[in-house]
Write a structure and sequence with these properties.
Layout lengths: L2 H11 L5 H20 L4 H8 L2 H15 L2 H20 L2 E2 L4 H4 L7 E15 L4 E5 L6 E7 L2 E7 L10 H7 L6 E7 L3 E10 L2 E4 L3 E10 L2 E4 L5 E8 L2 E4 L5 E8 L2 E4 L5 E8 L2 E4 L6 E6 L4 E5 L6 E7 L4 E3 L11 E7 L4 E5 L1
Parallel strand pairs: 2-5, 2-6, 2-7, 2-8, 7-9, 8-10, 9-11, 10-12, 11-13, 12-14, 13-15, 14-16, 15-17, 16-18, 17-21, 18-22, 19-21, 20-22
Antiparallel strand pairs: 1-4, 3-6, 4-5
Organism: Jeotgalicoccus saudimassiliensis
Protein name: DUF4097 domain-containing protein
Pfam family, one: HAAS
């Protein structure tokens, strides 16, 4: 997504606000973006900081409701509710004829919204979908909007209760998360997965952008090719293998980060609580790897020729096998940092 696309989507989401207020917000956004770029921020960095246009719009709408008189607030809330209802009414149930219903439609953006489900997206000769709900409470719906296909999963196993171990043994199947597998045959402009609870696995897919997010659950990716990869989790490990990006962004609050054989020009890897393990990344690249409460371990397969390496540890030890490496001309910078752990850089 480019900044002009962000502004366009934001303006669309703000249509529930009066035109004058909407215009004011958009113009202010444009001005702030111009100032940030003048100060040196890149378009990619600003997009990361801003997040999704829908979330930004929700905040503005909520603020407007708080500031306006009670009657206007009620009217605006009714408008938003009506809009949400209209969106839901456009959804259709996923049936056994789902694949046939999509024949001949050129889909460039695949989006999956999950509640409590293990999601897998993998390459396939043709489009296919498999869904299993152990509680039989899970439901799949979809909606088509131009070239975007959105699949919505609803359902949870949190309502399953047990009082004794015997009761637990009888109901243990019902405690398993729903399972959703999607086979995808061609390249996408964007693959988006937003999952509240459950692991997300994506393998051998080509897309310009990958935006994969979970609240509770890990993310595993392999064999991906794209311009931008963003993998984030509140409570889960992140693992990426054998992939090729221009920019890779991985962030988790409570989990490990592993990247092996992933080529990129720029990496940004952060974990609040967990270690970072990196192996066979691009030797010459811009990279920032920060673990606040864990170690950082990096293995180079080839010596960097144009990258200055910086290793920092506020509390733990630093072992850098490349500390005496001489670079011909500095073109990149790699920063490996741990606030409460060690940093180790090896060459093999």
């Amino acid at each position: 997504m480019a900044l002009n696309e962000f502004i366009t989507e934001l303006e669309e989401e703000l249509k529930v606000l009066p035109e004058a207020r909407r215009h004011e917000i958009i113009e202010d956004f444009k001005m702030q973006i111009e100032k940030a770029i003048e100060l040196g921020d890149t378009e990619e960095y600003l997009l990361k900081m801003l997040g999704h246009p829908v979330k930004v719009a929700e905040k503005f709408i909520a603020d407007e409701m708080i500031e306006e008189p009670e009657q206007e607030t009620a009217e605006k809330l009714a408008e938003v509710t009506a809009k949400q209802k209209e969106v839901k009414e456009t959804r259709k149930s996923v049936t056994g004829n789902f694949a046939k219903e999509l024949e001949g439609i050129n889909i460039l953006h695949l989006k999956i919204n999950g509640e409590s489900v293990a999601v897998k997206v993998e390459t396939g000769g043709k489009f296919g979908i498999k869904f299993l709900s152990y509680t039989h409470k899970g439901k799949l719906e979809y909606e088509l909007n131009n070239d975007q296909l959105t699949i919505h999963h609803s359902g949870s196993n949190k309502h399953v209760k047990f009082n004794t171990i015997i009761d637990f043994m009888k109901k243990r199947k019902e405690l398993k998360k729903d399972e959703l597998v999607i086979m995808w045959p061609h390249k996408l402009d964007r693959l988006t997965v937003n999952n509240k609870d459950g692991k997300v696995t994506v393998t051998d897919i080509q897309a310009e952008e990958f935006i994969i997010k979970t609240k509770e659950g890990g993310i595993y990716t392999a064999g991906l090719t794209g311009n931008y990869g963003e993998f984030t989790s509140s409570m889960g490990a992140l693992k990426a293998e054998s992939s090729d990006f221009r920019n890779l962004y991985m962030e988790t609050e409570m989990g490990r980060i592993y990247a092996g054989g992933v080529k990129a020009e720029r990496y940004h890897l952060t974990t609040e609580l967990g270690r970072i393990t990196l192996d066979n990344l691009s030797p010459d690249c811009d990279i920032k790897a920060l673990s606040k409460m864990g170690s950082v371990n990096v293995n180079y397969r080839a010596e960097p020729e144009k990258t200055k390496i910086v290793a920092k540890a506020n509390v733990g030890k630093v072992k850098n096998a490349l500390e005496n490496n001489i670079i011909s001309k500095e073109g990149y910078r790699a920063v490996y940092e741990s606030e409460m752990g060690s940093v180790k850089i090896t060459l093999s």
